Amino acid sequence: MTEKVKVRIDGEVIAATAGQTILEVARANGKYIPALCYMEGLSAVGACRLCMVEVSGVARLLPACTTPVQEGLAVNTSSPQLESYRKIAIELLLVERNHVCAVCVSSGHCELQTLAQDHGVTYVRYPYNFPRLTVDATHPRYVLDHNRCVLCSRCVRTCAEVEGAHVWDMAGRGIQTRLVSELQRPWGESTTCTSCGKCVQACPTGAMAEKGWGVEEMTKKRAVVSRLSSIREGQ
Amino acid sequence: MDKVKIGTCWLDGCSGCHMSLLDLDEGIVGVLEKADIVFGPLVDAQEWPEGVDVALIEGAVSSQDDLDLALTARERSKIVVALGDCAVTGNVPSMRNGIPTRKLLERVYVEGATEGRGVPTDGVPALLKQAEPLHSAIKVDVHVPGCPPKPDAILFVVGALLEGRMPDLGSKLRFG
Amino acid sequence: MTAGLVTAPPRSEDRDLIDRIIGEQAGHTGALLGILAKLQDHNRDKYLPMETLEYVAKRTGLPESQVYSVATFFALFNLDPQGKHTVAICRGTACHTRGSRALLERVKLQLGMQETGDGADKVALTTPDRRFTIRTVACFGQCALAPVAEIDHSIRGHVTEQALIREVEGLRRERVR
């Protein structure tokens, strides 16, 4: 059953279906809410905190990607406060790992780089973490560079939910969190990876890439993952 | 009216941002009508002069010399511009930051050398522990990301500063 | 942390134990947590060997990456063999301001442990003879007793360097007897 509800986004009354999230309704109606860990066709995890919005009657900010709409919900998608929080979130993502755009295969096609630009991040106010991280180039076709990983888990969800292999997951916690394949096996020695490459396409940065590309040359076909998921849902 | 005084320098960088500055082409003529370049690789001055209006600084702060020059430039300039990704983020020079300097120097000057092995102590500035963005060492007034920043962006920033305005870069520039 | 490559399957008696524990817990949501906790309890060195994790994944049908994720997320689980005695120093805010860093450094010095040097404040070190494991804890929730240390599951409040070293030395002498 699809119950219709009316919500207000930035003052505009919009018809939505109960169960949809604020982010889905906003995007379907051409409203911009930034997001990094959200990807159409995958479950939402609310990890990146970029899609935080103001909901009237709620004192704290809510992530648009995991908050379902309900009748009469009034949402504010932008304000000076939200903008300042989003900038902070982007800056913190930039200091956490070693994002050196100048030597990245995904430069020019990177969602983190684009978000920084869109939100006017011309420099980062926090000290860089400069962690020492590894690159896993053991897979014959793909490479994983932890320096560029933002822990959005889109690869994890793509592999688990779309491909059904669940090669990837997050190990550890806090600042020590790392993407791992299986029991921390090198990617190339994975026994469950089908080499389908959908994790690579889903990755918003240059953390996962096809081998053989130079700086700025790796473009991702992110829509493929979302489309596959929607085809499956329709079946 | 006196001309605006511009000083430029590069710290730990590749000079690419200065190349981009030269790539202003005829734009540089307009700049030079209003300004003099009083210090930098393009002119003869040996020391950062007093009373500079605009300092364009390329490169990360990576050695003791970088730090000294940055501090002098800051002290003697009204407005400091971090020009390009190395000055803004640390960029490529900062990729050494996970490695202790002693190991780094040994890798280059001992393991990597075929003759005259040994870490030099004279004639080269001491390496700092990490290559850091300029704003970690001195106050920076304008950040111009890009590797290198496009000539248009440099002209936009310098143009605004020459008119006595702070440039509003908004979403014009990206890292990389 | 132990490298991921699995070399040998668990011994058959271990397999029987794992099978039994999985059988007891099967069907529960979040059963994995209980399974891993029980397995670690049964392990002589209070840890989860890689072979065990691999076997648990195989028997439960859960992805290996998910088993590894759970085992590394919770501070409760160890992937390396633990010492006979565990000294846990609280590094929460209250304990920090009451000098828990000095306690930690002192006990490390006493047991001749080198700093791992990864810069993180989190510590989990075991002496080469596996007599002692020293670890840090985010907070015991006993802030009024700061600084707090836990020695073999018994919590001590208002710990001083002298008191801590006396206890550690007491445990160390046990070995001689």
Topology:
The complex is a heterotrimer of chains A (235), B (176) and C (177).
Chain A: E1 4-9, E2 12-17, H1 22-28, E3 52-55, E4 62-63, E5 74-76, H2 80-96, H3 111-118, E6 135-136, E7 142-145, H4 154-163, E8 168-171, E9 178-181, H5 198-202, E10 208-210, H6 222-234
Parallel strand pairs in A: 1-5
Antiparallel strand pairs in A: 1-2, 3-4, 3-5, 6-7, 7-10, 8-9
Chain B: E1 4-10, H1 16-22, H2 27-34, E2 35-39, E3 52-58, E4 61-63, H3 64-76, E5 77-83, H4 85-89, H5 101-111, E6 127-132, E7 142-144, H6 151-162
Parallel strand pairs in B: 1-2, 1-3, 3-5, 5-7
Antiparallel strand pairs in B: 4-6
Helix pairs in contact in B: 2-6
Chain C: H1 12-25, H2 31-42, H3 50-60, H4 64-73, E1 85-90, H5 93-97, H6 100-110, E2 124-126, E3 132-137, E4 149-151, E5 154-156, H7 161-176
Parallel strand pairs in C: 1-3
Antiparallel strand pairs in C: 1-4, 2-3, 4-5
Largest sheet of chain C: 5 strands, mixed
CATH architecture of chain B: 3-Layer(aba) Sandwich
Order of adjacent strands in the largest pleated sheet of chain C = 2-3-1-4-5
Low-confidence stretches of chain C: 1-5
Which overall shape of chain C is indicated by the principal axes computed on the Cα atoms?
A: elongated
